[in-house]
């Protein structure tokens, strides 16, 4: 029988053998994983736990909050403020940064998260997830402010997500490949189920919200038209489409079998930004995808090279199989 490796064992072995995970970071990720387990329990209870439906409030982006958005946010805050490895946190569901209260010990790390991605799928029992990203506070900086968070994604020291689907799967990178862990509900622990995750460079599958077609920019239309033309078209092959509308689940499919995911800028947004958030959606997913051999751009530039100017910055996203991402990006650069 193959040896079962728990998340804790995996992290300790990585720390010992490769030395690229400092102890504080390892413990911080364990706390995040514990919070994800608690969120998974709430998600699974559904109507029985009275966690479905709206909370009657709006977040900073003007989006209606679901009860589970708020529950997941509270679980992550409560678990992590206590852990002792963080200076501050930032969340899609909170306007400003959250400083670790003085009654707890503090550390050097900054944690960002989208507590519950795919909110529109909560009530319909479709996969949703938690996305997170870890940065380190600049050395020597006293206190902590929003400016400490405004670092390009290439400075992330860890990133991951937990998808709550038929299985609960935690996916992690520390910048040395991508590993996946499946929650063993009987044991209550995450077990390593895949290492060295690789996204195929080519694909025949794309993910985009087609209902926005009339708002798209010409290069996006060109790319999708060519995919839709199938074997007779310039691509000479038939494409399939998948769109779950939970980025976390769409990216999980891409890490599992390849594909390209796009949430491009479209004409509904006057300031050329996209819909998704740079700091807690695009950056962590870009880190994972690149670590699995894929690519991630804003249709023109590498996402992880962008320096954010504000916490809740939005960005266009094209990520997944390398050759497709490069093609979409080239169509945009050609049209400029
Ligand atoms: P959320 O963080 O409020 O759930 O919104 C992000 C989601 C992504 O998961 C998904 O890719 C996109 O929004 C879906 O948008 P659309 O409503 O266009 O399908
Ligand atoms: Mg989201």
TrEMBL record:
Record GO terms (molecular function): fructose 1,6-bisphosphate 1-phosphatase activity; magnesium ion binding
SUPFAM superfamilies for the chain: Carbohydrate phosphatase (SSF56655)
Source organism, top-level taxon: Bacteria
Residues that, per the record, bind substrate: 117-120, 209, 275
Biological or metabolic pathway of the protein: Carbohydrate biosynthesis
Annotated Fructose-1-6-bisphosphatase class 1 C-terminal domain residues: 199-332
Enzyme Commission numbers on file: 3.1.3.11
Keyword vocabulary terms for this entry: Carbohydrate metabolism, Cytoplasm, Hydrolase, Magnesium, Metal-binding
Major place of residence: cytoplasm
Domain Fructose-1-6-bisphosphatase class I N-terminal intervals: 6-195
Family annotation (Pfam families): FBPase, FBPase_C
Binding, Mg(2+) 1: 92, 114, 116
CDD domains: FBPase
Membership in a protein family: Belongs to the FBPase class 1 family.
Known partners and oligomeric status: Homotetramer.
PANTHER family: FRUCTOSE-1,6-BISPHOSPHATASE-RELATED, SEDOHEPTULOSE-1,7-BISPHOSPHATASE, CHLOROPLASTIC
This protein's name: Fructose-1,6-bisphosphatase class 1
Lineage: Bacteria, Pseudomonadati, Pseudomonadota, Betaproteobacteria, Burkholderiales
């Amino acid at each position: 029988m193959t040896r079962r490796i728990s998340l804790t064992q995996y992290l300790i072995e990585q720390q010992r053998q490769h030395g690229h995970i400092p102890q504080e970071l390892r413990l911080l990720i364990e706390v995040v994983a514990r919070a994800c387990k608690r969120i998974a329990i709430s998600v699974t209870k559904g109507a029985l736990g009275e966690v479905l439906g709206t909370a009657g409030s709006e977040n900073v982006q003007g989006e209606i909050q679901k009860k589970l958005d708020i529950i997941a946010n509270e679980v992550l805050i409560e678990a992590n403020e206590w852990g002792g490895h963080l200076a501050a946190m930032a969340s899609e569901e909170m306007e400003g940064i959250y400083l670790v209260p003085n009654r707890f010990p503090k550390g050097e790390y900054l944690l960002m998260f989208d507590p519950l991605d795919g909110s529109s799928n909560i009530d319909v029992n479709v996969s949703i997830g938690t996305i997170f990203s870890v940065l380190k506070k600049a050395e020597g900086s006293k206190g902590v402010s929003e400016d400490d968070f405004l670092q390009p994604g290439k400075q992330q020291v860890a990133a991951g997500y937990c998808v709550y689907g038929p299985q609960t799967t935690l996916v992690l990178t520390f910048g040395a490949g991508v590993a996946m862990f499946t929650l063993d509900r009987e044991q209550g622990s995450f077990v390593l189920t895949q290492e060295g995750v690789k996204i195929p460079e080519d694909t025949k599958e794309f993910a985009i919200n087609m209902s926005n077609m009339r708002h798209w920019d010409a290069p996006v239309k060109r790319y999708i038209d060519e995919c839709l033309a199938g074997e007779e078209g310039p691509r000479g092959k038939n494409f399939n489409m998948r769109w779950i509308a939970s980025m976390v689940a769409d990216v999980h499919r891409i890490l599992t079998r390849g594909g390209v995911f796009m949430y491009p800028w479209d004409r509904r947004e006057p300031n050329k930004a996209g819909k998704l958030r740079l700091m807690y959606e695009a950056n962590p997913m870009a880190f994972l995808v690149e670590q699995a051999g894929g690519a991630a751009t804003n249709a023109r530039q590498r996402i992880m090279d962008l320096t954010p100017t504000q916490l809740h910055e939005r960005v266009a996203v094209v990520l997944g199989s390398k050759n497709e991402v490069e093609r979409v990006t080239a169509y945009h650069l050609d049209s400029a």
